Each structure stands twice: as structure tokens, then as C-alpha cells.
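Shape matters. As here.
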Amino acid sequence: MNVTGNEDNCRKLRKEDHVQRVSAEQKGYVQEHTNRRITENNNTDANIQTDNLLEEILHRENMNKAFKRVKSNKGAGGIDGMGVEELLPYLKENGADLIRQIKEGKYKPNPVRRVEIPKEEKGKVRKLGIPTVVDRVVQQAITMKLNPIFEKQFSDNSFGFRPRRNQHNALRKCKEYADEGYVYVIDMDLEKFFDTVCQSKLIEILSRTIKDGRVISLIHKYLNSGVLENGIIVNTPNGVPQGGLCEALHNPPYAKKVVMLSNTS
């Protein structure tokens, strides 16, 4: 965003100008409407035609790529028990009907299957939501078309859940800062971020760029598909299920980790 054009200097706090920069940044947050600070750049209305985005998502070539990606990733099945090895025969028989339902707005995603995996902290677990393999194909198709659109809105200093970026890139960036003389690192983790995402705010943000209301509606359906937990379908009015492919789309820069470097005492 324009107001964070000097983001590197603001985040890497130097002793001599620490108070001044923090004060200026706080003033910017007060004066700038919150909505404009969601993304790093002012590209929320990018010059990309998104009116017919659903047709691009459901295009045969894109759907085939999505299928191959899901098949190569393997993974467990969802609540219907279908595995990736059964996916191709199913799509050959039902693919045309699936696409027709999505285009007509009649498709209803399945609830995700709840799976708990242990965290590093003793006694704590991370709750994952495993979509059906069919829903994973549709989500993958959505993600492959939306990623290039939203990539240009993200900060160059964001490395999580982004194509061709990983923790090694982040470490190299930290080393660059360390070589400049910054010696302190502050590592912050936003607790239960995915569990507390405001869905209405997320839909609002997506709608600023995506003008095809059918795509917005489809994403909204996935958000509200629910979770099957102990044999009961639980509604999910808040949060984003971790484990689905759309999680990457719903993950803005700095969602999980924020690292600040400083040479102040």
C-alpha cells in the first residue's frame, strides 16, 4: 500500500529514529481507513478482467491441471471415503454434471472431515479439515486462477503459503538484514488465526478484486460447508478450515508469523 511504501525501514527499527518512526506509523494507521491496509499494495482493483473468471476456473485445461495436482499430492479422503485412485473414473462419469451444477450455482460442497494432529506443545492439537477429493479438485482449480491475481498484492517480505517461496527464502532475507547490522529478532505467532478468520471480511476483501459474483459465492459455500465431527455436521460461521487447498488463498501476508529485526536495546 502507498502508506507502507517504506515498509523495510519501518519494520527494522533503528535506535536513533525508533520513537519517530513508530509514532509516524501509528498516525498512519489512525488516518488510513482499515480497509486500505489489508494488502501491501494498492492493487485490490487490479487491471484484470475477472467478470468471467468462473469459466476460466472450469475450463477443461485448468480442471485437468487441478486433477493432476490433487492426484500427485495424494492425501486422505474426505467424508465420502473416496480416495484419489477413484477420482479419475468418477470425474469421467460425473465431471460434466459437476461443472454444470457449479455454473448454475447449484453445487453444494461437502463438509470437511475433522482430523486432529498433535502440535509440538505437549497436549495441544491442530485441527485440520480434510475435503473430499472432488472438492479438492474444485478448490485447486480456484486456487490456480486466483493465486496469480492476488500475488501482486502481497508483500515482498511475505514467504508463507506462496508459490516459489519458502522458509529458506525467509532465512536469506533475515541474513540480509543481519548483515546490515540488525541484531535482534522478534518472532510473533498469531494464535488460532485460521480458527478466527472473519468470513464476511474475507469475502469483502476478495470482492474488491474478483468481480465474478459466482466465484465469490462458490468460495463462500466452501467456507460454510461445515465440519463433520464425531458423526455430527457442525456449522462453521467463523474461521477457515486448515487442510483444504483454499487455505492458501485465505492466508494473507503475515497471517501466521511476523518477524521484526532491530538493533535497539
